[in-house]
Design a protein that fits this description.
WYL_dom, SH3 type barrels, two-stranded antiparallel sheet, five-stranded antiparallel sheet, alpha+beta, Arc Repressor Mutant, subunit A
């Protein structure tokens, strides 16, 4: 059994007995490898986002949170590669870190043969870059909607003027060339769009404001048609 298939099999073994643990020794015997190799495999799965933790004690071992994992996903290899390409295109967006952690979870949840075929197909796909990627979105901006806290921004406008603003995050707008943070700007007392590559500094305050609705009129951007992301 190669390592890719073994990682998938370890997840399935832990899912089958969850929330009960399996010891490193038991898993090593099951897959005919050393306990040290099992520990390395578990570490790799944890780093890819699989919710496995160690339970101490004589009857302890490794446990998997079955509520936060998927059963085998019936995606075709073509579908998995399509999703991989889409996730790759999120590198310069606020969702870069989430995209990087999502793909290993997707592959871990696929049937073993399909996951292997998807990897082989992906190896034949190449993306051409211009060598000038957009600046990475700061983590505190990328996670602004999840944390819900007021951000203190240093922002440079189109004229190069630097201002300091407290902003209540409301959403994002993405275009082919730039991403914008939508927020209630307390300096201007209204909704504003902040181009993320013009944010020169950002700090997260302790304040969690009451939620503000984002009206359709707030998205009346003159140079493009705005469509909302819909997950069905």
């Amino acid at each position: 059994m190669n390592r890719t298939d073994r990682l998938y099999a370890i997840v399935e073994e832990l899912r089958a007995v969850a929330p009960r643990p399996r010891s490193a020794g038991w898993l090593a015997g099951r897959f005919e490898i050393s306990s040290r190799t099992i520990e390395r495999d578990i570490s790799a799965l944890q780093q890819s986002g699989v919710p496995i933790w160690a339970e101490p004690g004589r009857t302890g071992g490794y446990c998997l949170d079955g509520r936060r994992t998927l059963p085998p996903v019936n995606l075709t290899p073509d579908e998995a590669v399509a999703l991989s390409v889409g996730l790759r295109l999120l590198e310069d967006t606020p969702f870069r870190a989430a995209a990087r952690s999502a793909l290993p979870k997707l592959l871990a949840a696929m049937q073993g043969d399909d996951a292997r075929a998807a990897r082989e197909l992906a190896g034949r796909i190449h993306l051409l870059g211009d060598g000038h990627p957009l600046p990475a979105v700061p983590h505190s901006v990328a996670s602004a909607l999840s944390t819900g806290r007021v951000l203190r921004l240093g922002y440079r406008d189109t004229d190069g003027v630097l201002t300091r603003r407290d902003v209540e995050p409301l959403g994002y707008v993405g275009s082919p060339t730039h991403w914008y943070l939508l927020g209630w700007c307390r300096l201007r007392d209204g909704v504003r769009a902040f181009r993320v590559d013009r944010i020169v500094s950002v700090s997260v305050t302790a304040e969690t404001p009451d939620p503000r609705p984002l009206a359709r009129d707030d998205l009346d951007i003159p140079y493009g048609v705005v469509t909302r992301l819909d997950l069905g």
